[in-house]
Amino acid sequence: MGEIKIAIAGIGNCASSLIQGIHYYKDIDNNDKLVPGLMHNVLGGYKLSDIKLVAAFDVDARKVGKDVSEAIFAKPNCTKVFCKDIPNMGVEVQMGPVMDGVAPHMAEFDEDVSFRVADKEPVDVAQALKDSGAEILVTYLPVGSENAVKHYAQAALDAGCGLVNMLPVFVVSDPEWEKKFVEKGLPCVGDDIKAQVGATITHRTLARLMADRGVKLVNTYQLNTGGNTDFLNMIERARLSSKRISKTDAVQSILPERLPDRNVHIGPSDWVAWQNDNKVCFLRLEGTQFGDVPMNIEVRLSVEDSPNSAGVGIDAIRCCKLGLDRGIAGKLTSISAYTMKHPPEQFEDREARQMVEEFIEGKRER
Length: 366
What we know:
By secondary structure, this protein is an alpha/beta fold. The protein folds into 2 domains: 4-194 and 307-360, NAD(P)-binding Rossmann-like Domain (Rossmann fold); 199-305, Dihydrodipicolinate Reductase, domain 2 (2-Layer Sandwich), CATH 3.30.360. The protein contains 11 helices and 11 strands. It has helices at 13-24, 68-71, 125-132, 146-159, 175-184, 199-212, 229-233, 241-252, 305-325, 333-339, 349-360, and strands at residues 4-9, 51-58, 93-95, 136-139, 162-165, 187-189, 216-226, 264-271, 278-289, 293-304, 330-331. It has a 7-stranded parallel β-sheet with strand order 3-2-1-4-5-6-11, with helices on both faces. The chain has a 4-stranded mixed β-sheet with strand order 8-7-9-10. Strand 5, helix 5 and strand 6 (187-189) form a beta-alpha-beta unit. Helix 3 packs across helix 4 and helix 6 runs parallel beside helix 8 (241-252). The model has no long low-confidence stretch (mean pLDDT 95).
């Protein structure tokens, strides 16, 4: 099927896990349908090893100018290393635009856990994408990088690249931005990656279970803690508005009727430095069952955050490539609904999965 040439904006923990995974699974037999850790070994004819990184952008002094094989292990990255022998990739991390990508409070924390902006001029991202031959741009910037993400999205449009937006800046789910991709004849997938088995998918599943079994959900919360730069970034509450909307809508969308705002609380809770890339989620769902008798469910979920994201991201990337191959313009509804918290259209997860399978097989347009 050939290569899938991607560029990544933001060489943080999630990018590290994605790149490690491409190498970790490179020798898997193509005929193995069930491979631990993968939703699809081969997707539409594409293997993980077909994904080739051709350009990378970051703003941290410890990454800019380094080969990606070195940069993915540089501070402040702290995710689990499950594939340490990454050969030199011949891709230098280029200086991207800072804009709102780095929260001011990062300067108050030790450099081992926070960003340190490189003293370099940003490159012309659109030109760099063109020069690299990238087909798809993957955005992995910090939450709250509203202007920076849209800068990269515009660069993808200008360079003729598809887009996979992994964070909660509403691009693919914004009709005006999605129209731009339609006009350029380019596919886009987004917004805000939903982990393999993470807080949101678990919360959605339990809420759906209660609804299907006739239990009325009355109150619910989702509290998350972690020690990576994503959680440190989010202690500035002003950066959280889109994240809260994304995570809350992901749960509210599968309920028979939306809960009042005061009865639902979903979002990051706090940064706990020693947790590193481990994310701990506390869920509580309170409802009433037969005879209006109360019941509740409490769950504690612990996951390594970034591999959890990358395990889904590789399917979003490969579906975006199928969109390019098939000349599809604009949002890819099925893979966005299955892999993203805030897609253009929300579907129940089992239905979204079936839609993805139909899209892969060519039985569904998008």
